[in-house]
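The instructor's notes for this session suggest beginning with a concrete chain rather than abstract definitions. Hand out the sequence below and ask the class to guess, before any prediction is shown, which regions might be ordered.
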Amino acid sequence: MSSATACAQLHRLGVRRTFMQGPRAFRTGQHVVGPALTLQFMPQREDIAGGGEQEYVEKHTALWKVFDAVQPGHVLVVQAFGAPGTGCLGEMLVRYFRNRGGAGIVVDGYLRDTPKLGALDIPLWSHGGTAHYASQDELFPWGYQVPIACAGVLVLPSDIVIADDDGAVAVPISLAEQIVESARATEDWEAFSRERIDAGGRLDRYYPLDEEARREFDHSRS
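After discussion, reveal the predicted structure:
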């Protein structure tokens, strides 16, 4: 299903903050659905990590450990506050994630090595590119497989992430089955609406379906 359909269905259930406003698709036509693997960046504090050796200190943080937790189909979701000076992931880490079966990555921040990322053929969403490594500026990798805030959305480990050209949506795992059922029904009648509108049907009759159009739709499926 599309991120837009998932977002709309969740809104009807009263779950309103599910769309991660900010991360954009690295290339058009991307689509991914999978359970969230979370990575959390937090503000730096010099008594914990600081100085020119930070890039090597990162090897002993959540930024490396999270990749040992990758299972096939995982969508890595990264909390980074949209910080422009933090290159959350670069080519080597994304390559390793792909090779372990990861399905896609959504970053509320920036990526490094963007020319090389394009050759990896893995769906990516971010705010853009930067030349900085992960802890070169204001943030530091802190935790993984913990609740995070990605672009203002609470994402729990194993929530279902749906991302496409519109962006990324987090679906609570407890509602996933219900969302699938309602989304199938919605996308079914929307396909019918497209057919009728393309054939010259009235917008106010076919989107959304009025009572007469609903009967017509039900009849067409019987």
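Then share the key points. The longest strand covers residues 32-43. The two ends are 24 Å apart (CA to CA).
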